Amino acid sequence: MQNGPAVRRRKLGAELRTLRTGTGLTSGEAARLVGWHQSKVSRIETGASGVKPADVRLLLDAYGVRDGQLRELLLMLAGSEEAGGRNRWWHAYRGILPPTYRDFISLESQASGMRTLETTVVPGLLQTPEYARAVTRAAVEGVDEERLDALVEVRLARQDVLRSDPPLALSAVLDEAVLRREVGGPEVMAQQLERLVEAACLPQVRLQVLPFAAGAHVGLTGPFVIFSFPSTSDLDVVVLDQLTSSLYLERKEDLMAYSEAFNTLQIHALSPEDSLDYIAGIGDGA
């Protein structure tokens, strides 16, 4: 388990190593091509040190990488603010967002797919403004109104990934407790359930409910998010959100375990069609 920046360095280094070996170059030969010492290439590939976006461009040019989507993603991992993709709007909120949250938003903005299990609250990408305000007020102790407004703005701005071109593909499994927990009062919750029904009809959103009747399940260990990225699965990562930080799992064994767990949850959950009816039924007081 590591923090987001460390994971990105390691993943970037591993991908650059794969690209280098694919060209048949040794690390020493690659270093000579770009005018570096061999040790710099080795440090980058092992994730021992960070790398500037400009240096990544040099290596990608040396390796003959022309895939624009892959170049953009690797530049993002290097921290480039000039890489294309979705707008990096969150930089305007640096003063109020902790680094772990900014890092999560950065991954979310560049991901092509997101699979999430939620056991307590509605996923941030599907929250109404009123629900987001109630959740944030409860989660951030002593928050003043000005900061609360800004945090809600951030939550709502994140939702643009579902409307971008191409949109983020969101697959969410919601424990029934998410739907039954009255956040913000009856009116706020009713509006939130209506929002979920609307979202479930979007082609880029797959929403499933895990009813109480399903009994004990693998998701009882807690919520998680799996980010998938275009061009290569080697950059996929699992995020476990904690009260004061986020933990990132990058090992293939961890990714496989969480992917299998998510698949199992989908099997035990209601179908998307039945889930939509279930949510609507709760909203109607059934």
Automatic annotation (TrEMBL):
<dbReference type="GO" id="GO:0003677">
    <property type="term" value="F:DNA binding"/>
</dbReference>
<dbReference type="Pfam" id="PF13560">
    <property type="entry name" value="HTH_31"/>
</dbReference>
<feature type="domain" description="HTH cro/C1-type">
    <location>
        <begin position="16"/>
        <end position="70"/>
    </location>
</feature>
<dbReference type="InterPro" id="IPR043917">
    <property type="entry name" value="DUF5753"/>
</dbReference>
<protein>
    <submittedName>
        <fullName>XRE family transcriptional regulator</fullName>
    </submittedName>
</protein>
<dbReference type="InterPro" id="IPR010982">
    <property type="entry name" value="Lambda_DNA-bd_dom_sf"/>
</dbReference>
<dbReference type="Pfam" id="PF19054">
    <property type="entry name" value="DUF5753"/>
</dbReference>
<dbReference type="InterPro" id="IPR001387">
    <property type="entry name" value="Cro/C1-type_HTH"/>
</dbReference>
